[in-house]
Every structure is written in C-alpha cells, then in structure tokens.
Amino acid sequence: WSVNDSAATHWWATGSRTPVVKGIYQADTAGWQQVEVEYLGFRDTSYLSIEPGKLVKIEVMPDSALITTDSTLQLLATGYDGDNNSWDLTNHSLWGTNDPGASVVVGQYNPDSIGLYLVWAESSGIGDTTQIQVEHGKAVRITLLPADTQIVAGDTIVYQILAYDQDSINWDISLTCSLTIQPDSGVSIEQPKLTGIYRGNYQVRAYYESLMDLANLQIRPTNPESIWFSAPVVSETVQAGGNTILTIQVRDQFGNKVNDSLLVNWSWFDPEGDNIGGGERFESDSTYTIDGASQVIFYPSIVAGDNYRVVAQVDSLQDTSVVIVVDT
Fold first, then answer.
1. Residue 115: per-residue pLDDT
2. pTM across the whole model
3. Dist. CA 61–CA 21, nearest whole Å
4. Among residues 40, 137, 169, 299, which one has the fewest Cβ atoms lying within 10 Å of its Cβ?
C-alpha cells in the first residue's frame, strides 16, 4: 500500500536544492541524484539521472584575454539551463571572430592581426562574446632604414628601425633599440637621429634583443669655407728653368677636406704684376686632387730674380703664393 502521505514517511534527496514532498521529486540539479525514503524503520533508495533543462544562456571563457600573434588561445563555451545547471558546449557550438584571417576551431583561437577582436560561440540561437587583445609576437628579425645613404656634413638623418615577428607583423622600435656607429667619432647621435660632422664612410648598427641589422652611411663635405696654400706656404724659390708643385688645401666649416669634384681656378701674375691667367706656365692637364688637396705644376720663367704671384680660387675663396726664380 502507498505510504507517501503517511506522517511516518520521511523523504530526502542528496544533491537536490528542493525537498521531496509526499514522494514528489522536483528535479533542479543535473546529474545523478539519490532519493531516499524511510517508513517505520524501513529504508529504500532510488537513483535518478537528471539531464539539464532547456538552454537559456551560453558563457564563453575567458571573458577577456591578452595574447600574441604567435600563440593560440583555447576558449570554452558553457551552456546553462533555467536552474543554472551547466554543461560543456565547446565542441557543439558555432565559433566565429571579426579578426580578418584568423580562425576559431572548436574554441581554439589562432590570431592573425594586431588589435582588439571579438570571438563568439553560438548554439541553438543563443550565444556569448569575449574580447581578445592581440599584440605582436616575439621579434625574429629587424630592419634598419634607410639601408645605405649619403648625407652632407651638418645634415641630420632620421633612421627607422622595424621589428618583425614570425607572421611578418612589424612595429617601430626606433626609440627602444640600441643604435651605434663605427667609427664612433665624427657623428652626433640623438636616437633615432644622426647628424654627420666628419667626412667618411660609416657603418650604422641597430640592436634589439639578440637581433642586429646594419646600414652604410657616407658623409660628404659641405661647401668650402676656407682655402690656403700648403706647399709652398708663403713663397718658394725655384731654379731658373725649373718647376714647382703648388698645393692648395680646401676645407668646409667642419674642417673636412673638400676635393669631390673640386674646381680650382689657377692664375698667375708676371713680375710686372700683370694678370696673365693660365697659359703655358701651368703644365697642361697637371691639375689633380690628392687627399683633399688640389695640386698643379707651375713653370716660371728662366730669368733669375723674377717673382711670380700664383692665385688659387674656389668659388669666392682664394689664396696667394709667391714663386721666386733664382740662378741655377
């Protein structure tokens, strides 16, 4: 006979959030549940398998994350019914993202670009979204730009140094890398700017973590600022019928030797002071440059005692030397 309504009958359920009343069990917790009854010292047990109710909510975890382009993130989708029972929906959801080129396969997010992106899961028309911040991966190479260039002394060049991860995503490290130059004199560095001072060929190197890249830099002299005879300094004696090599030095404002495509105009004045100009006194095609100096071979007359004034001019700059002819 039924003793459900008897005052001597006691019911209870293990794991249930609601009591059993007169044998009526209200399922509210998914999983295996144990229901027990006692009547006049007699006991019996029933085991019930409770399935989750209708899906009312999906939760994607983690709800936010920070990852890099060279990594992946495993997301989990959890479903909930009206009694807050939960179950794993990771393998039974439709996954998607607004990260162009990325993929989400069974909750595993493989990023493609830097930025803040959404990843979502959907099942039975119900879904949830999480935000993922994607940053660049570990640098695998760096590039120093421009690779090879020339500047004029006094000019400034601004270098750009880019780092690249394994997906060829780049970012600017111009202010965070280490910039050096060899030889280390003759330039001024205010990273990432470099100002040239002394002419020459230099090698610029950028270091970032364990990576390095280099570029070649040539510093050329600027416009001539000074000019003087270095041989002879003031005057020189030459035997009658002989010749002498005249050497002119030209420098820019930084003291750099200026000889690239240097055009020196040579002229001479005879003993009477007349400006004769060029002509036969200078050996034909004898003008040349050597180590920043311009030289010419000058032939005075065969008359001892004659004095010749030789003028070298570069742009608006000039200097004078005197050649004195003596007896042989």
1. 94
2. 0.66
3. 38
4. 40
Nearest alpha-carbon partner for 11 in 29, 38, 50:
38
User: Which residues, including other chains, have CB under 8 Å from residue 261's CB and lie 6 or more apart?
Assistant: none
Least confident window among 123-137, 226-240, 269-283, 291-305? 269-283
How long, in residues, is the chain?
A: 328
CA 264 to chain centre: 45
CA distances from 23 to 74, 103, 165, 251 (A): 45, 52, 66, 110
- Going across the sheet that includes 126-135, the strands are 64-68, 126-135, 115-123, 94-97
- Per the listing, tokens 């990260």 go with 99
> Is the pLDDT reported for residue 257 higher than 70?
yes
Q: Is the pLDDT of residue 148 over 80?
A: yes
Pairing of strands 76-80, 86-88: antiparallel
Q: What is the pLDDT of residue 285?
A: 45
Peptide bond into 300 cis (omega under 30): no
What's the pLDDT score for residue 260? 55
- Whether residue 151 contacts residue 196, with contact meaning beta carbons closer than 8 Å, is answered with yes
Convert the pLDDT of each residue in 22-57 to its tens digit: 888 888 888 888 888 888 889 999 988 888 889 999
State the Cα–Cα distance between residues 325 and 300, nearest whole angstrom: 7
First to last CA, the chain: 156
Strands 108-110 and 103-105: what pairing? antiparallel
pLDDT exceeds 80 at position 237 = no
